[in-house]
Amino acid sequence: MVERPRPLPALLTDLACVVVFCTIGRRSHAEGLTVTGIAETAWPFLTGTLAGWLAARAWQRPANLYPTGLIVWACTVIVGMLLRKATSAGTASSFIVVASITTAVLLLGWRAIATVLARR
After folding, report:
1. pLDDT tens across 92-116, in order?
2. What span, in angstroms and rounded, lies between the C-alpha atoms of 9 and 3?
3. How far apart are CA 114 and CA 120, in angstroms?
4. Distance CA 53, CA 51 (A)
5. What is the pLDDT of residue 120?
6. Local structure of residue 90 (DSSP, 8 states)
7. 103 contacts 14 by C-beta, under 8 angstroms
8. What dihedral angle (degrees, nearest 10) is formed by the CA atoms of 47, 63, 28, 75?
9. Rounded to whole angstroms, what are the CA distances from 54 to 25, 47, 48, 63, 80?
10. Residue 7, Cβ neighbours under 10 Å: how many?
11. 26, 37 in Cβ contact below 8 A?
12. d(CA 45, CA 27)
């Protein structure tokens, strides 16, 4: 039987998913893959992820899809986009759609896999 994730590894997984999303985005737009560049792109979304963890009290049930995963995902996108808008970074409609889908696959995907494995 697979043990459900503990809070710290789950938080680190969420943060890693956001960094992966930002790295893929920078690569697909031929932006530099430097630590500074990735951090510049990622910080609004990482802030949103942390806000989601607080809003969901995710440390209590970090691997739950609902409500934890959905709240973390929604905060990641909403707070991330609001911070990007506040700092004059891009928030085109197509970017919002792509960011929403990609972060949903990543942030909800690992939770879905963890749930399936925990049930086995």
Report:
1. 999 999 999 999 999 999 999 999 9
2. 12
3. 10
4. 5
5. 81
6. -
7. no
8. -30
9. 26, 11, 10, 15, 15
10. 14
11. yes
12. 17
Cα 101 to Cα 112: distance, rounded to the nearest angstrom: 15
Residue whose token pair is 């951090």: 39
**Residue with token string 């970017």:** 95
How far apart CA 99 and CA 18 sit, in angstroms, is 10
Residue the block writes with tokens 């959905």: 70
Query: How far, in Å, CA of 91 to CA of 59, rounded?
Result: 30
The first and second tokens of residue 92, run together, are 């085109």
Confidence (pTM) = 0.92
- Record the tokens describing residue 37, joined without a space: 């560049």
Which residues, 6+ apart, have CB-to-CB distance to 24 below 8 Å?
A: 102
Alpha helix ranges (H) inside 1-120:
7-28, 35-56, 70-86, 93-119
How distant is the alpha carbon of residue 118 from its chain centre?
Answer: 22
